[in-house]
Design brief:
445 residues; alpha+beta; Butyryl-CoA Dehydrogenase, subunit A, domain 3; Aminopeptidase; 2 domains; 5-stranded mixed beta sheet; 3-stranded antiparallel beta sheet; 10 strands; 11% strand
């Protein structure tokens, strides 16, 4: 009984303390939004972020709901600004209208960023928002303010591209292991195989306020030919290639490290800058390609072809190990994959597959579809073992990007176009030899 009594008293004490912190946070945010001096504002911002971090999930939710409701747009001020602009249109009135249309919450977030490590604290706060968003849609406005501000704070001009190698500080290497999202790194030995050999490269974007925390990184293999499977690239005991023989740079893994930067895209800058740097340092390189998964293919099959015999077969464990059965499945699955890549769209009318959407939107074209390129459990479960080589032709990236964004054009090689569904809106590119030789004549397809 005494133990239960003490536990109850302790719980009530914690609850009271948490309520006081929540009340203090809301008032402190209001104070922070006022015209405090820079030094006092930075000190208060630090205390707010520190106390927020100590709250349990319910306490954090309560504070975020306060941000959503108490610090929204001042309706009366906005209406007055609209009337003023209507009566006296001009630059000054437009600036007043713009200021009035901004939520008071944005100024709170800006001032929280005054704190030492303020950017890191706000990233963690947005992670909380993203986790709660589906259950509490009222937080969508808070999320929109975060995304708006992060677009400015993580502008490409602020980002620093750094090479990552085996001699990079361990604090960064540990995060490369943790953040790898495509092909899991099993430990330090596996990491060394990806970073230490001369034919393996890695590059990451960093932000000045997050010096040891990468935002996104890409792993690169230098090879002779365009690869058709991931296992040989990651194999233990693989003999390194003489760099002078390399003709192809393969971007085989791209990992975003900060969940809180959802909606803030800088992967396209990473690919293009890394390709340019590699070309400058290794002028013999002719091909810049990916070896990419197709993470949404099987899920799309389940939604669009739920009774298909091909789907039932690939859902059976070990199906790929039967050569005769796999060979029989191959043509039909390739046609279905082509339908998925060229025809399946998301709500915005862009390619449904997130990897295809990323690379095609960056100006790449679909160079090869690779049958059983990834026979890992994850590769089979998500993509039926398929992988795709997306080609980055440095001379045509921008034109491809514009055509895809403006007209939905998907550029593809002759081999891939042969798999396409009738009526697909495809672009074409001159055919090249595997080592980037002179183009062959071709016609639009």
């Amino acid at each position: 009984m005494i133990a239960r009594l003490w536990r109850g008293l302790a719980q009530r004490g914690r609850s009271l303390r948490e309520r006081r912190i929540q009340q203090w946070l809301a008032q402190a945010a209001e104070t922070l939004r006022s015209e405090l001096g820079e030094a006092s504002g930075a000190a208060l911002a630090r205390r707010i972020l520190e106390r927020y971090a100590t709250l349990p999930p319910q306490g954090k939710l309560d504070f975020l709901l306060e941000l959503a409701t108490r610090f929204s747009v001042d309706g009366a001020r906005l209406e007055a600004a609209i009337r003023h602009y209507t009566a006296h249109p001009g630059p000054a009135a437009a600036r007043q209208l713009h200021a009035a249309a901004e939520s008071r919450r944005q100024e709170v977030l800006r001032r929280l960023n005054f704190a030492p490590s303020g950017t890191a604290g706000l990233l963690r706060m947005r992670e909380d928002v993203l986790e709660l968003l589906r259950e509490y849609p009222v937080l969508s406005e808070v999320d929109a303010d975060f995304e708006h501000l992060f677009h400015s704070w993580f502008n490409r001009g602020f980002l620093q591209l750094r090479p990552i190698d085996w001699h990079t500080p361990a604090v960064v290497l540990e995060k490369i292991i943790r953040y790898e999202a495509v092909h899991e790194i099993s430990g330090w030995s596996d990491l060394r195989r990806r970073l230490d050999p001369p034919d393996r490269k890695c590059f990451a974007f960093f932000h000045p306020t997050l010096a040891d925390d990468p935002l996104i990184f890409v792993e690169v293999a230098l090879t002779v030919d365009i690869p058709d499977a991931i296992a040989p690239l990651l194999a233990d005991g693989r003999p390194p290639l003489d760099i002078k023989s390399a003709r192809t740079a393969v971007f085989y893994s791209i990992s975003n490290c900060q969940k809180a930067l959802k909606g803030v895209s800088f992967g396209n800058f990473l690919i293009k800058q890394v390709a340019a740097d590699l070309k400058r340092n290794f002028p013999q390189l002719r091909n810049f390609v990916t070896l990419s998964p197709v993470p949404g293919f099987v899920a799309w099959l389940k939604n669009t072809h739920p009774g298909a015999s091909e789907l039932q077969q690939i859902l059976q464990p070990g199906w790929q190990a039967d050569p005769a059965a796999a060979a029989e499945l191959r043509p039909r699955l390739q046609n279905l994959l082509a339908t998925y890549l060229f025809e399946a769209k998301n709500a915005a009318g862009r390619p449904a597959d997130p990897v295809a959407r990323f690379h095609l939107g960056n100006g790449a074209c679909i160079e090869h579809v690779r049958w059983l390129g990834d026979v890992s459990e994850k590769g089979l479960r998500n993509g039926a073992g398929f992988m795709v080589n997306y080609l980055y032709d440095l001379d045509n990236i921008e034109a491809n990007h514009e055509a895809h964004i403006n007209h939905g054009t998907i550029f593809a090689s002759r081999q891939v176009r042969a798999l396409r569904p009738e009526g697909s809106h495809l672009g074409w590119r001159p055919e090249r030899s595997p080592l980037g030789g002179r183009p062959e004549k071709n016609s639009p397809g």
